[in-house]
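Two proteins follow. First one:
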Amino acid sequence: MRKEPTEAERKLWHLLRDRRFSGFKFRRQVQIGSYIVDFVCPSKRLIVEADGGQHAESTYDAVRDAWLKEQGFRIRRFWNADILRRGDEVQDTLWHDLDGATLHETDMTWEVKR
């Protein structure tokens, strides 16, 4: 877990925090199982990741994503460059992801780290 977010993570967190994004609650840097995700909306079981170039074709990410999906999460990954340069498209994509998803009871069996 990093103490200082990247520029892209800061921009994305500004959009998601304090229920600013259509009232949905997001948490930042959350531990789920043995993995730490950038952002998660527990009620929609949506994980949002801000990825740099090191994530291109990552075997670790593929294994991690498969495990998280087995736990009932959906994962949306954005390249840092898209977050920084195409924020409106990122916002539209997230709205679509949240709008069409089923609400779930918050399952707090996974550990939340702040």
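Second one, unrelated to the first:
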Amino acid sequence: MGLFSMFTRRRDDEPVDLDERSPSLGVRYRDLLLMNEIAKRAADLSQPRHVVFYLDAPSEDIGRLIAAEAGTHGFEAGVREPLPEYPGSWTVVCETHTVLTPEFVRDSVDLFEALAERHHADYDGWEAAV
């Protein structure tokens, strides 16, 4: 079975919950789907690429705390002012340049979800350059 062919796990082919984790990789199925889309468009997944994670913090101070902690894990992080339509939401942008592996995605998503929970923020996902 290939890396991205694990999106059904029951004999009756009932779809899995995208928030569940792949038993073999520990990565959420929604993140595997994104990795699959990147793999379809990228020439070589073994090459380093720009990867960005997003969180929404309830204040600038909390955003800065999250950014500082992300920095201790090797991410360049900054806080953006709220958009007019979301006045109480400071976006924390955490960037790195790395090879996109299931282990990196699993560990990074776990890190940012934990940061969001600890600081009463929202983890908003990730993207990567193709």
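SUMMARY FIELD: The domain at 46-128 is CATH 3.30.70.970 (Alpha-Beta Plaits). Residues 4-10 have pLDDT under 50 and may be disordered.
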